[in-house]
Design a protein that fits this description.
about 325 residues; alpha/beta; Rossmann fold; 13 strands; globular
Length: about 325
């Protein structure tokens, strides 16, 4: 039984998923301790604007801290009892990991180790953390199943996410900490990340700039709408088990050109396209097998792509004043 007055620590609470998760938990009556270092990997103003949306909730407390700073995190735990943790803080982005590898070591490995240590020391009831569909790497089998071996990451980002799953397994085994990893598949929606395709394409089309289309458009992605992702994440938070991994995807992959066509139709403009080869570290297709997520979590993504894109565009126009 979950007690809705519990405090849940959400790291990365100014991030895209972290913000939506914090809001949904607060609406359900939980208290949320939000941690974010507001790093400048993308527009910090967007992160601050998300935080402003959380400020009205009296049960939300924001800590401007970095998960690499064990002392700062300990301060939060000594201040109030933390019942559960959802760790979403990470250095994100496959492509950026080719440019700045050490930021991934610090956030995704050292930072995550701090989270595990705190979960152990303060005996939290559950630790849920973000993994990624990128762990599947060169997996030839489609759809991607959590039962597949994932020993061939093709970016450092993916390798750190796979490492998180292994670290969590060790801590779960040694110290009995309930750990659930969520492999997110291309999450999109309002307040989304500026480094992701939907945001990049929308921004370029509205500002009459060409869009860059990788692998000459021969890409497929399992796009998952933010509300569906949040629903699955909360289900995992409320369901502690010794150790588990779930795919949170839509289980339906969409061709990149079809994705672009929907954006063009919804904006009423055609994009000028710059065709480029596949980038290092990227995979041509992702598609999630979500049978176990349906079965164990009751996860049931139900937002059609066009509807989700429409919701994003409405937010984008409002936020940027189009």
């Amino acid at each position: 039984m979950t007690n809705h007055h519990e405090t849940i620590l959400v790291t990365g609470s100014a991030g895209f998923i972290g913000f939506h998760l914090s809001k949904a938990l607060l609406k359900r009556g939980y208290a949320v301790a939000g941690v974010d270092n507001l790093n400048p990997y993308y527009d910090v103003d967007l992160k601050r604007a998300r935080l402003e949306m959380l400020r009205p909730y009296e049960r939300f407390r924001f800590y401007h801290a970095d998960i690499q700073d064990l002392g700062a995190l300990k301060g939060i735990f000594t201040e109030r009892p933390i019942a559960r943790i959802c760790n979403l803080a990470a250095q994100a982005g496959v492509r950026h990991s080719l440019k700045d590898p050490f930021s991934y070591q610090k956030s995704n490995l050292e930072g995550f180790l701090n989270i595990l240590e705190l979960a152990r020391e303060y005996r939290v009831q559950n630790l849920v953390y973000a993994s990624s569909s990128s762990v599947y790497g060169k997996n030839e089998k489609s759809p991607y199943s959590v039962d597949d071996r994932v020993d061939h990451p093709i970016s450092l980002y993916a390798a750190t996410k796979k490492a998180n799953e292994l670290m969590a397994h060790a801590y779960s085994h040694l110290f009995g900490i309930p750990c659930t990893g969520l492999r997110y598949f291309t999450v999109y929606g309002p307040w989304g990340r500026p480094d992701m395709a939907l945001f990049l394409f929308t921004d370029a089309i509205l500002n009459k700039r060409p869009i860059t289309v990788y692998n000459y458009g021969k890409m497929r992605r399992d796009f998952t709408y933010i509300d569906d992702i949040i629903d699955g994440t909360i289900r995992a938070i409320e369901r502690p088990v010794a150790y588990d991994l779930f795919n949170l995807g839509n289980s339906d992959s969409v061709g990149l050109m079809d994705f672009i066509r929907i954006i063009e139709e919804e904006l009423g403009r055609e994009a000028e396209k710059k065709m480029m080869p596949l980038q290092p570290g990227d995979v041509p297709e992702t598609v999630a097998d979500i049978e176990r997520s349906r079965e164990c979590l009751g996860f049931n993504p139900r937002t059609p792509l066009r509807e989700g894109i429409r919701a994003f565009l409405a937010w984008y126009r409002e936020y940027y004043g189009y």
